[in-house]
């Protein structure tokens, strides 16, 4: 192990390097003394975190959360998805309360708002539907069948822009978070159609910056019409749709996950492309060094923050699914890479891994620096814990522990039991969306738990950030399909 | 109910609002994960729900939404409704913009304050008025002022880029456009001078030079490319481990399909330890500035760059040289990214003939 080295300042300090140095100094205090032989292994304080979550859920959020009054579906989603990651669930009574609360957010015009009586908006719609995936069920009072899908679809269409993007709400802004939220919702609820997403892949592609990551949005320039007097005014541009804002971890996750969801909809010719080489380089460069405990940053020359454990750390599985890094394409991952489970001792850790970021270091960041002693997880010390960071640190930990890959065998098994609806002309694309969404499996024997298996958390779906079980539950309901049982594959 | 109700003016006590039926948030008495609202906030939002329900578009709603926004600037429904009321009342949007000056500074991190500005400034009342130039340049000045306080604010930067591309890239504003872009470049130089590691400024420079049209005087793209490469080299020499400058350099090369090998002479001294007699035989090469005296060498981005140069050579010998450099990154200089550097080695070796 190399001794942690401060980021080089080159005897040329600026505000950025000063803040960086301060952060390194704080983080350094959270690295256990390498000379001490009595260091206990790091422990995920599951009970303390569960207490934090239960307190928020049952007693409620303190007044400082008024700033998130327009994000009530998020507060609930962050909390109950954290339960799922921590392998806990709600009792039937609280599940019902959750469903009833969520349904109060549905707007009469379609979509969900940030609270009762709030305007429908893509972000809370995503959070509400994801929360319903966890706690909801079919039938009266179960939430799922009370979602007004027809109005929701119309709401989506009403937000569509000529450049393939979507506003987040009426009079709202365009950004890739909104598109991610729309695509997840539409995927789960069987609302994804070629009509809805026409032009969207090209919009996503246009948000990639020269650094390789993605920006919040891009600016459309429409080429001048042929008879225009100012012909050629916009064709002068080398890039007709400049990204607005620099490459950013949150937007990059949303853009990449959107890209993966949109693959079945790419046109057969002249399809837009993204640069996976610069994307991979940018993603790996977001990982902080040893002195930053291997946490992730969200932008070049910014500070590490626990939430990017998921937004950036979680993006590697997505990148693998489109053929960059990881198990060789076309092989059956389970059979090819079946291994003995690994229990977190340092010996041989590196040899058995084809993941392109430092999984061990990321787990250490979360365990050593991300946990607040009083419960909940955080950006970095000495900050307070909050609902948002609790979830994204936990699912970042999950993505560093588990290795999820697309399994061609699983995909085939899903295809094999697919029931076509005779009336539908879009059967093929529905089938594809359904099968692609559900063919993620955990690579056998590739899980790694820093601090031992007691620190294990649940695996989460790399695109949807729901457990595979919850994803299968809600999707099979809305697609009216049965999902074949999961067979644990054995070593070939 | 609480002691604070004496000091806080509630809509519930205001006769002017007597015709509005306040709407409680939850019918359901037992919601999960509730927020503990202050009385002031609960009162205001109860009346807001009542207003929305009734479709009230009267001027008093501007006061109500302003109050909610001040208590919770992320209340997007209050912003949205406010905008609709402004339009319905045909309110003077320049006054609204001035109110926003105060709110934007107060709530710099909130998306909505920037988006609301965007709605206002793109409304024909301002953007098609005789004074549109005045409003637009005032916006640019205001943004610059905000960036002094928070120099990496994402929303502020993307708002500026939108403003420039939306209003100053079409050629409609003639001379004025030229002036704006010229000033923009000067301002960028100054911002980079202040903090050469501020990646937001570097991104902005890329946007201005390569992604928002071609400026008067910049028609010779070869000259522009040269200028930008020299600019990046110069900033790299000040602080060689600064990834923002290297990423910019790579961006310029990639964007213009230029080979990395063009830069090998420049990069080499940055990719190796300083030789003890470096100072003695230092030759001043203006095109290839040397690392500054305080530079910590070798630096990771230079080793990486040089490896890319070798990799593009494609011969076995080149790839092996690249692999050596990647190994040094994996095992010594950039150990956290060991997996990535090993992946680069594997990928490069795979394309070699057996």
TrEMBL record, chain A:
Reaction catalysed by this enzyme: L-cysteinyl-[protein] + (2E,6E)-farnesyl diphosphate = S-(2E,6E)-farnesyl-L-cysteinyl-[protein] + diphosphate
A Gene Ontology molecular function term of the record: protein farnesyltransferase activity
Family annotation (PANTHER family): GERANYLGERANYL TRANSFERASE TYPE BETA SUBUNIT, PROTEIN FARNESYLTRANSFERASE SUBUNIT BETA
Organism, as annotated: Jaapia argillacea MUCL 33604
The protein's Enzyme Commission number: 2.5.1.58
CDD domains (alphabetical): FTase
Lineage start: Eukaryota, Fungi, Dikarya, Basidiomycota, Agaricomycotina
Cofactor(s) the record lists: Zn(2+)
Subunit structure of this chain's protein: Heterodimer of an alpha and a beta subunit.
Function: Catalyzes the transfer of a farnesyl moiety from farnesyl diphosphate to a cysteine at the fourth position from the C-terminus of several proteins. The beta subunit is responsible for peptide-binding.
Cofactor note: Binds 1 zinc ion per subunit.
Top-level taxon: Eukaryota
Similarity comment: Belongs to the protein prenyltransferase subunit beta family.
Protein name: Protein farnesyltransferase subunit beta
Keywords assigned: Metal-binding, Prenyltransferase, Repeat, Transferase, Zinc
Region span, Disordered: 1-21, 327-349
UniProtKB/TrEMBL annotation, chain B:
Family to which this protein belongs: Belongs to the protein prenyltransferase subunit alpha family.
Highest taxon of the lineage: Eukaryota
The keyword Magnesium belongs to this UniProt entry's keyword annotation: yes
A GO term, aspect molecular function: protein farnesyltransferase activity
Cofactor: Mg(2+)
Keyword annotations from UniProtKB, A to Z: Magnesium, Prenyltransferase, Repeat, Transferase
Parts of the chain that traverse the membrane: none
UniProt feature coiled coil, ranges: none
Protein name: Protein farnesyltransferase/geranylgeranyltransferase type-1 subunit alpha
Tagged with keyword Transport: no
Enzyme class: transferase
Segment forming the signal sequence: none
Cellular component terms per the entry's GO annotation: CAAX-protein geranylgeranyltransferase complex; protein farnesyltransferase complex
Pfam families: PPTA
Gene3D superfamilies the record matches: Protein prenylyltransferase (1.25.40.120)
The EC number(s) this enzyme carries: 2.5.1.58, 2.5.1.59
